[in-house]
Amino acid sequence: MGADVTAMGGAPLDSPAGEPRGRFLPRALGVLSLGLGAAALGTPGLVSRVIGVDDSALARTVLLRAVGVRELVPVAGLLASGTPAGWVWGRVAGDTMDLVALAVAWRDRRGERRRRVGNALAAVAGITALDLLAAVLASRAATSRRRAFRASATVTVNRPADEVYRFWRDLENLPRFMYHLESVRADGDGRSHWTVRAPGGRRVEWDAEIVDDNLSELISWRSVKGARVPNAGRVRFARAAGGRGTEVRVDLVYAPPAGALGRAVAKLFGEEPGQQVRDDLRRFKQVIETGEVVRSDGSPEGLATRQQLRQRPARPAADRAPR
Question: Which of 150, 151, 248, 310 is the most exposed place for a label (fewest CB within 10 A)?
Fold first, then answer.
């Protein structure tokens, strides 16, 4: 029973679910930078009066224009980069220079101008706090992406796509061929509870939700917010060439946490996550085509993958007789 299986493992990936973490604030700050830069370059006189700094020709033509250029430089990186941390930290550095300059101006001003400079100083301090928060979040997201791994595999099974889809859509079937899964409990409305047994007697549990479900074509799921091991998966079903059944492609991503739990999860998935997925799909091929993982005479230990792998392959009675 040969399985046509290919896989790729160990590639860095973004956050397992939805918008990559740490991207919303950088994009918002990119829009803010665009507006501030355009105002400083387009109407420097108005800006200098609003913030109460010296409205001399030097302030309008040199200082504010320099600020405008500095605001516009990181816009593209903030709006489009998948790794905006460096761009946001650049804004923090620029904010620091602005705060120093405004503090000097506030000290030297009197009356109405001093009040306007004070207002500008407070506004820039607020923007600096946002920039600092965005920089920290973007840096954490970059660290998370470096820890995240993706594994993909494909197998061709001799069954029609609708039958394969129905089997996989019942998520409680997954422990029958996924070695690390102890159980999956369907809770309704696309939600489910997953349990894996990690080394050292640990159990890792999380809740997941189905995010895409196209009949006989696609199922995708992801862990809900707050999961100790963020992860996501997608399985596609397509007719195999030459009427040879169904091609099943699985894509998985997970992000091991830090600390002892992270080390246990890394050990659980092994050095090569792609190999784990290939092995799972070979067992899936056996289960969907024969009804069980072909390991022994029946399944006295149970149907879960861990239970079946403890059993011996079937042998003729003569081979089992004592010599």
Answer: 310
0.85 exceeded by pTM:
no
Instruction: Put the strands of the sheet holding 149-157 in their side by side order.
Output: 6-11, 149-157, 246-254, 231-239, 218-223, 203-214, 191-197, 181-188
- Whole-angstrom distance, CA of residue 169 vs CA of residue 165: 6
Q: For residue 181, give the nearest of 189, 169, 171, 190 by alpha carbon.
A: 171
Place of tokens 């913030």: 51
Is the distance from CB of 304 to CB of 176 less than 8 angstroms?
yes
- Residue 121 neighbours by CB under 8 Å, 6+ apart: 99, 102, 103, 106
Position 94, amino acid: G
Model confidence pLDDT, tens digit, residues 138-175:
877 666 555 667 788 999 999 999 999 999 999 999 99
**Contacts of residue 58, Cβ cutoff 8 Å, sequence gap at least 6:** none
- Asked if 177 contacts 288 with a C-beta cutoff of 8 angstroms, the reply is no
**Rounded to whole angstroms, how far apart are CA atoms 276 and 268?**
10
Give the whole-angstrom CA distance, residue 261 versus residue 204.
9
Residue partners of 129: CB distance under 8 A and separation at least 6:
none
pLDDT at 119 over 80: yes
Give the residue from 140, 5, 7, 117 showing the smallest Cα distance to 52: 117
Q: Cα–Cα distance between 88 and 293 in angstroms, integer?
A: 52
Per-residue model confidence as pLDDT tens digits over 250-303: 998 877 655 455 555 555 555 456 778 889 999 999 999 987 765 544 444 444
